[in-house]
Write a structure and sequence with these properties.
The chain has 358 residues and is of the alpha/beta class. The protein is 40% helix and 15% strand.
Length: 358
């Protein structure tokens, strides 16, 4: 006969080891889909991918993160398996910002923990500055602030963006009648590898491609990109240096960890002022550099996990009633092992007290 405590421990272990749950969250224009990995008994970390990527970007990092928190990864609108916006509607930075709020509303979260890469790291910088009281943790991969272009180049950007969107919107309309160009899988790997400016290693391209392509109905051995091409020309949220500085000043007490890829220039001298303000005003701000490209979390997951895990354990530690540790797991981070030993010592003291009262 299994004791109640043994049964509860088995139940907790099952919760952490269970297969990811596919989720679908209704939106006014359709739906956003995602996967909920790990523990479903407590509020998870909401993970957001970069520009033209999808939730597959987290495949290699997720197994290395602490087990007491689940991670809800979503495909942003127009990416992966989430709905595309209707024909004639352009994508805007604010659309993605609203997705965070709608997910929070769907699950009844008063606060949110965020993990974001690239475009979504910019998105979460804005979110945390607007809603610092609702952000209890933020991990940003290889971007710390929104982009700024000088006026002359910004004019060119706007013109090219509008014209590019018009072309892609026509392609989107035609795609209902005519299949997009198809390629072999190896050709698509090369397209993604080169298109990311070699940031995504060739061996890791399949993590992104899985949710970004569909099999051709005309050429059985070929595939085509199924993500919304209009996302290439989404309207960014640009901030002048004074505005970015003011936004940074509002993020005062938010645990904020930024990880820079050593081979990437996405965090450069233009970020120095914002980083300086965050360091001065926010006692919970951290900046680390890890060997790797812009997709450092995908190519060097071990290096990134070594930074993220202590950060998570410090700012969102385990709750005893919702978390157990598999004693046979030798791959646990040292901070988790130390916490496990502290829990066991505490339980041993309680047992001795119970026995002394018998």
């Amino acid at each position: 006969m299994t004791s109640k405590s043994e049964g509860e421990e088995h139940k907790h272990n099952e919760q952490h080891e269970q297969e990811p749950m596919e989720v679908r969250i209704d939106m006014p224009w359709g739906y956003v889909v995602g996967r909920w990995y790990g523990n479903r008994q407590v509020r998870p970390i909401l993970a957001l991918h970069g520009w033209l990527d999808n939730l597959g970007t987290w495949d290699k990092l997720l197994p290395l993160l602490p087990k007491h928190l689940g991670v809800l990864c979503i495909d942003l609108p127009g990416h992966g398996y989430s709905s595309k916006l209707p024909e004639g509607i352009a994508y805007h930075f604010v659309d993605y910002l609203c997705v965070i709020l709608r997910v929070m509303e769907e699950y009844g979260w008063q606060k949110v923990s965020l993990m974001a890469h690239s475009m979504s790291a910019m998105l979460c910088f804005i979110f945390a500055s607007l809603y610092p009281h609702r952000t209890d943790l933020l991990v940003s991969i290889d971007i710390v602030k929104t982009r700024y272009r000088k006026p002359a180049s910004h004019i060119d950007y706007l013109r090219n963006n509008i014209e590019g969107y018009m072309v892609e919107d026509e392609r989107f309309a035609n795609a209902k009648r005519q299949e997009p160009p198809a390629y072999t899988y190896s050709e698509l790997e090369q397209v993604l590898h080169k298109g990311s400016e070699y940031s995504v290693e060739l061996k890791n391209c399949h993590h992104i491609l899985e949710r970004n392509i569909s099999r051709s109905t005309k050429f059985p051995a070929k595939y085509f990109f199924s993500r919304d091409g209009r996302c290439k020309y989404y309207t960014e949220f640009h901030t002048s240096p004074p505005f970015a500085a003011e936004l940074a000043r509002t993020i005062k007490n938010v645990p904020y960890c930024v990880i820079k890829g050593s081979e990437s220039n996405f965090i450069d001298e233009q970020s120095d002022e914002v980083i300086g303000i965050l360091r001065e005003n926010n006692p919970h701000f951290e900046l680390h550099e890890v060997q790797g490209t812009h997709h450092v979390h995908l190519n060097n997951a071990d290096g990134v996990a070594a930074i993220i895990n202590p950060f998570i354990m410090h700012h969102r530690p385990p709750l005893l009633e919702t978390w157990t540790v598999d004693e046979a797991d030798e791959s646990l981070p040292e901070v988790v092992k130390d916490f496990k030993l502290a829990v066991e010592d505490s339980e041993n003291v309680k047992r001795r007290k119970r026995k002394s009262n018998l």
